[in-house]
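Section 4.2 – Deliverable D4.2 (structural model, holo form)

The reporting period included a commitment to supply a predicted holo structure for the target in complex with 2-acetamido-2-deoxy-beta-D-glucopyranose. Inputs used:
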Amino acid sequence: MPRKPLSFSIKNSESTRRLSLGHVALIVVMGVCYVVNQGGGGYDLTYLVARRTSITTAVTSDAAASCPPLKPLPPIKGRNEIALFLQEMNFTHGIEIGVQRGNFAAHNLGTWTACQNYKLVDLWAQQNLETYKDVANVNNQQHENFYQETQNRLSPWKHKTEYYRMMSVDAAKYTAKQEMQVDFVYVDARHDYCGCKEDIENYWPLIKPGGILAGHDFMHNDEVRPQDWSICSDGSIHPEAVKGAVMEFANKHGLPLHLTYREPKWNSWWMQKPLC
Ligand SMILES: *[C@@H]1O[C@H](CO)[C@@H](O)[C@H](O)[C@H]1NC(C)=O
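Output (structure tokens):
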């Protein structure tokens, strides 16, 4: 039986050069089916296209079925319970952004003994006083003292800790370049809406599926006076602050958002990255 004109025209027409990979795959499928159907006297193009479509659909639904649901996160009273959860999950890698004196890091490292690598990201330097009106924005001498104090406090875990004394955005870029992913990120750096949003968006891709993104100070500016967290570094005003940035991200990605329920004041928030 002679080859059908279709293969001839593909080999010789102008359109050959414009064929995409998808077309090539289709032709291969058609080629296989053609051989199968040859005894029956040639192929039916409609049938082949339909067959290919059903194969594609089957692959897609298989992928969806293989994404297991996550176990719901447990309710937690305070941020100090997060480390217990990380330990229970056998997680091994974490990043804390906004370290200050290293008290929270010390608690985490002491509790989360399965941790193998804990990155500490902080500029430990004063930032613009006009746009960053935060009690944490102390002078440079004080920041230097905090940095030394942190290193002393965390010295028992020296082999596990890594210091990134730089802007959080730069530390995220550096980590991304090394193609490293972590199980846990805790955001406690800039408290303005833009800064918090930027940290969340930059660090989310660095978290493994099933890992945890959490942070401090789930608050609107009205709740933190006399501090002022409403001013972004570009001078724009966003009184929704950390609370706004976190809620917006959770809504955008359809992620359940969890808050600590019995802190003396500064509530933490946390959410889990879906498995796929
Ligand atoms: C963590 O590791 C322990 C010991 O290997 C194991 O029994 C447990 O099931 C693990 N937990 C999770 C959540 O994988």
